[in-house]
Design brief:
Number of domains: 1
Structural class: mainly alpha
Order of helices and strands: HHHHHHHEHHE
Radius of gyration: 16 Å
Number of helices: 9
CATH architecture: Orthogonal Bundle
Number of strands: 2
CATH superfamily: Hypothetical protein, domain 2
Helix content: 40-55%
CATH topology: Endonuclease III, domain 1
CATH class: Mainly Alpha
Shape: globular
Strand content: under 5%
Strand order of the largest sheet: 1-2
């Protein structure tokens, strides 16, 4: 039996997410935007809730196509807040739309969002050596810095905790515990 991080429960969706996605470096803008949206909607909820609704989000938000999302109008907004398959929080839906617009501004300025976000870690993951749940932080000085930088650019729902979770999900930090089989992968 494989040893996994402490947070993985017996749900196959969680196991697959942990084994195949979480902590693996992501450099393509499309996937980075997807995680930015999902982490935004996760605020205040459990990640398993988001994973279970991920396909609904994908369908509702045009496969996380930030170019389309940036142009959503009031009709699409109303459609989204009536969609029982996603989290129907008006502020989070609005932020997905405005964050898509800002995401493209960053692309113009830096060539890609990936170039921008990965510049905070010099383009390579920070490899932590945590051995237990108690050692894994919810925020760091770096997530504070990235959060402030994104907020300064106008992004919403990008507090330090959300940004640290984003960094973990996209492999900017490797927070697999050292006893996890994914730690060295």
């Amino acid at each position: 039996m494989k040893n996994r991080c402490f947070w993985v429960n017996k749900d196959q969706l969680y196991i697959d997410y942990h084994d195949n996605e979480w902590g693996k470096p992501v450099y393509d803008d499309e996937t980075l935007f997807e995680f930015l949206v999902l982490e935004t909607f996760q605020a205040g909820l459990s990640w398993i809730t988001i994973l279970k609704k991920r396909e609904n989000f994908r369908e509702a938000f045009d496969n996380f196509d930030y170019k389309k999302i940036a142009e959503y109008d009031i009709v699409k907004f109303e459609e989204l807040i009536q969609n029982a398959g996603i989290i129907r929080n008006k502020l989070k839906v609005k932020s997905a739309i405005s964050n898509a617009q800002l995401f493209m501004e960053i692309q113009k300025e830096y060539g890609s969002f990936s170039n921008y976000i990965w510049s905070f870690v010099d383009g390579k993951p920070i490899i932590n050596t945590f051995t237990s749940r108690g050692e894994v932080p919810a925020t760091t000085a770096l997530s504070d810095t990235i959060s402030k930088a994104l907020k300064k650019k106008g992004f919403k729902f990008v507090g330090s905790t959300i940004i640290y979770a984003f960094m973990q999900a996209t492999g900017m930090v490797n927070d697999h515990t050292t006893d996890c089989f994914c730690y060295k992968n």
